Amino acid sequence: MNDTPSSANAAAAGTITLGGDLRVNRLGFGAMRLTGPGIWGEPRDPQEARRVLRRALELGIDFIDTADSYGPDVSERLIAETLHPYPPGLVIATKGGLIRPGREVWERRGSPAHLRQSCEASLKRLRLERIDLYQYHAPDPRVRIEDSLGELVKLQQEGKIRHIGVSNFSVAELERAAGIAKIVSVQNRYSISTRRSDDVVAYCEQRKIAFIPHSPLAAGEHVGRDTSSRELERIGKQHSMTIAQAALAWLLARSPVMLPIPGTSSVAHLEENVAAAGISLG
Questions:
Q1: What pLDDT does residue 273 have?
Q2: Sequence-ordered list of residues with C-beta below 8 angstroms from that of 167, at least 6 positions apart, any chain
Q3: Does residue 282 fall inside a structural domain?
Q4: H-run or E-run covering 236
Q5: What is the CATH number of the domain that holds 226?
């Protein structure tokens, strides 16, 4: 391994600027898996979940991504209980637009009234006066994108949101969004084996918008079963790193606008992931 967990630091990945004024290290942390099984309820080991959050900051992570639907509410609450008062420079991004009526159920809810209620509830749970990056979690086919994002613009004008991002958007939807709000980030599923958003990455590169890949380690789940997984095995062996580290190193090398947010509920896995920040595939 090119770096040891004790000396690894997210700063080795370089930085990216969100919205022209928020500079963060280019390896963040996704807080989805701090919740219980199925992203539902309380974590199995609440103390380990809190240790993960504290250790993330020690390792130089200054961008934490969460959502009101993780738990639901659990991830945001854990972040506030563990890290508040927040250190200077820490950016907490959250999302609204999905509801969880049951453990296996994710429903899109993009009405202006719901998004306003969700944003204001996230502000209270996170103990913030303003959310640095608020992301519309997924387009709701029953609600015009213009209406959903229009409400986020109103919340931005009221000082409750600093910057607006979107998630699970196509290029066509991004073009519509650009007519309503300044979009500073796009969060789509993306990995070496899941590249349907290649055109979205290109769109973000052209406009200097951060691309936040969710499920960045998906390729490591089926090692040896497809070409991309074999490529990760090759990269891992060449650079003396794990499959997960190879997946993250590939993403960081893929584009300068890439901001991976690997998540975990384990300090050991967190340290392993952050070690990928210092690995160059060049």
A1: 94
A2: 95, 97, 135, 136, 137, 138, 186, 187, 188, 214
A3: no
A4: helix 227-239
A5: 3.20.20.100
The pLDDT score that the predictor gives to residue 281 is 76
What are the tokens at 32? 């989805």
* Residue 4 maps to a domain: no
Please say whether the beta carbons of 255 and 201 come within 8 A: yes
For position 74, what pLDDT does the model report?
98
Query: What was the pLDDT predicted at 226?
Result: 67
Residue-range definition of the domain harbouring residue 195: 10-277
CB 227 within 8 A of CB 255: no
**Residue with tokens 């796009």, as numbered in its chain:** 186
Contacts of 240 (CB under 8 A, 6+ apart): 1, 2
Look at residue 42 and give its three-state secondary structure: coil
Chain centroid offset of residue 280 CA = 22
CA torsion, points 105, 172, 167, 154, in degrees to nearest 10? -110
Residues, the chain: 282
The answer to whether the CB of 63 falls within 8 A of the CB of 31 is no
- Give the three-class secondary structure for 186: strand
Kindly give the interhelix angle for 227-239 and 243-254, rounded to the nearest 10 degrees: 100
Residues classed as catalytic: 70
Q: What is the mean pLDDT of each run of 10 residues along the chain (282 residues)?
A: 59 97 97 96 97 98 98 98 98 98 96 98 98 98 98 98 98 98 98 94 98 77 60 76 89 96 96 90 68
> 273 by DSSP, 3-state: which?
helix
